[in-house]
Amino acid sequence: MRKYDVNDVIIVGAGPAGAIASKTCAEKGLRTLLLEKERMPRLKLCGGAVSTSALSHLDFGIKDNLIERECYGERVHFKNYQIEVRRKSRMGILVSRDKFDAYIVSKAVDAGVELHDGEKVTSITPKQSRIVVETNKEKYNAKVVIGADGVNSTVSKYVRDSYKPDELGLCIGAEIPASNEAVDEYIDTAVDMHYGISKFGYGWVFPKEKHFSVGVGGILYSMKNPRNIFMTFLKNLGFSTDVVTHAHLIPSGGYDREVCSDRIILVGDAAGFVDPFSGEGIKYAFVSGKLAAERVVVSYENDDFSKQALDSYKGLCYNSFGENLKYSLRLTKLMNKYPDIFFRLLSSNKMVLDKWLGVPAEGMEYKEYIKWLIPRVPYFMLKTLLHF
Questions:
Q1: What are the Cα distances from residue 342, in Å, to 163, 254, 327, 349, 384?
Q2: pTM (two decimals)
Q3: Fewer CB within 10 Å: C terminus or N terminus of the chain?
């Protein structure tokens, strides 16, 4: 690509949101440049659970060799309570994010996207008829930029203020080697969730191919000594503490945030589209990436990339999943305000847990789950008290 050539669209960040956004733009005939600061495949700290609901938003299948485990259930712990629920249908898959993300990017490249990995964006300058994107290697022009560069987004700085401390979560985790036999014996085709470990968060153990993905996440201000919290978690589970840890921030969804400015749209984590209860972001990355691309196509046809034109994207996101994230935030705050009621129910009542599993497995709305749960809380609590 020659310096100063004008692209139709530049996407910054080659995670799931950026990959789907760029793939959709290219399929619609737009000249599309995808910039990624790391070399693909790149390390990505994540439990690697991709829900069936998230996968339903892809128009292509996931290769079998990327699926390290299939998930059919969940085991939940809270204090001395523990239950496990299995479902007949698959709830999701467990993957390694470096390989999973690289595969989705390969689909974008197949669609005609020009990928420049190992190239970090340093500045963005909106002009009257274009937007200039400067990297550590080159300078590019485009009609519009889609910011898919995560929680520490460079692009978002040109749209809104940074996340507030109480809108951020911190995750710390490690990969723990184990034989497949040991993984099967521990949990096999389910995920292991531990509530009460941190505020607005949980600990997890996910089975993978010859290893476990183990981590703890919580609201940033409550994670004063994250490594100590994580090491205590490992010790209590009987895992070795001689591990290499990685930590990263995630945004909490459900808040009303600006996601557009002139010639700029934010998607995925950069936009704050993450489930505040489960921490799931991949589903909303897929959906917002596609919606942003479709909005860009309309702007390209009308030659109107103003904030006023692009703002319809925010409404599309709200109609698709925004209300759901708001109800998830309400549920998260309620459960953390009364943990001994709600997490106790989740870890001691199979009906409560099975109903909740409909969210990742079937895309059930949080509003529906809350309407089902709240009227039943007194009955379930009485039943639990009498049982124990």
A1: 28, 20, 16, 10, 12
A2: 0.95
A3: C
